Amino acid sequence: MIGALTLLLVYQLVGEIIARGFGLPVPGPVIGMLLLFLTLVVRGRVDDELRRTAGGLLQHLSLLFVPAGVGVMLHYQRLADEWLPLLAGVVGSTFLAMAVTALVLQALAHRGEGKKEDGQ
Amino acid sequence: MNPRFDEIWVYLSTTPLLGLTLTLVAYQAAWWVYKRARFHPAANPVMIAVALLVAVLSLTGTAYQTYFDGAQFVHFLLGPATVALAVPLYAQLPRLRTMLLPLLGALAAGSLTAALSAFGIGALLGASTQSVMSLAPKSVTTPIAMGVAESLGGLPSLTAVLVILTGILGAIGARGLFRLMRIEDHAVRGFATGVAAHGIGTARAFQVSEQCGAFAALAMGLNGLVTALTLPLILPAAMRLFGL
């Protein structure tokens, strides 16, 4: 587990260095994810240890968003003043984006494959 | 209040232990409710845990910054967890290869829709410029959204809240929306959830199926990249359109 955690942190660190070094607007961890993905593609397999550690971290991914969510406390005033445009913007755009993505993907994928994919 | 307890409280409230433990306890409670609700999306654990913590902090008069001194250890794990998303992504490699072009097309459409509709709805309903700028990147994962908001002149901490709200809404509403649209394919469901509702949507998608989660993770990562690269270029034009 420590080995795999070290690996994840090293990729994150390299991602941060690349992001800062080249002044990219993309956060380090996302670059780290892409690099790790490329590494796995090149190596053609995933160690058991990495699979278990990644699975453990991702199983409770929701937990990791809790501290930022509690930051709602800092914005009571603005939320009270602008709740309608903010709420409408969040609700409207979330479901619009979800529907548009699904429709476009469904249309393009099923045209390309020429058969209907079934969900599992 | 008992003076001894008062002393203990004064000590504890200055250590990170309290914020960290509170976060985990609140999450355990939220998870218990989620499980009891048989993982119904409306019992979203992020929403319940945040509500519990806000209640406790408000009742005890604890400042967010004090809480975050401890909770930051949990927050920090978002970094390695993001890197770890490469693993389930890799497991979907065969399917990714066959769907690459459709995925990129859907990504472009979904990413633009998310940012421009958030921006447009907010601007039309009279949100302040700062709020609109905080709203635009809200469909991408927290660290990216905060960075983009900052570069646009929004408020990063407000963006973080809007991002979390987006994720919770997406995680709660996805199943209903896809049923309504009669979309069965878990790859399509996952990808759309990841584009619109980033990590919290992805967390929910992983609870639905491995394939759903992997495609959500892919979508979240790609949408983060695309939004970070394009939104600072597109938004000035959109602002002129709305006269901001």
TrEMBL record, chain A:
What is the membrane topology noted in the UniProt record heading this document? Multi-pass membrane protein
- Where are its TM segments located? 29-46, 58-77, 83-105
Locations listed in the record: Cell membrane
What keyword terms does UniProt attach to this protein? Cell membrane, Membrane, Transmembrane, Transmembrane helix
Q: Which branch of life, at top level? A: Bacteria
Sorted alphabetically, the Gene Ontology cellular component annotations on this record are:
plasma membrane
Indicate what this protein is called per its UniProt record.
CidA/LrgA family protein
The species this protein was found in: Pseudothauera rhizosphaerae
User: What is this organism's lineage?
Assistant: Bacteria, Pseudomonadati, Pseudomonadota, Betaproteobacteria, Rhodocyclales
From TrEMBL, chain B:
Q: Which domain of life is it from?
A: Bacteria
Q: Where are the transmembrane segments?
A: 12-34, 46-67, 73-91, 103-125, 158-178, 214-235
Q: What is this protein called in UniProt?
A: LrgB family protein
* Coiled-coil regions listed: none
Looking at the keywords, is Membrane present?
yes
Could you list this entry's UniProt keywords, alphabetically sorted.
Answer: Membrane, Transmembrane, Transmembrane helix
Enumerate the Pfam families for this protein.
LrgB
Record-level GO cellular component terms: membrane
Q: How does this protein lie in the membrane? A: Multi-pass membrane protein
Mostly located where?
Answer: membrane
Q: Taxonomic lineage per UniProt?
A: Bacteria, Pseudomonadati, Pseudomonadota, Betaproteobacteria, Rhodocyclales
Where it sits in the cell: the answer is: Membrane
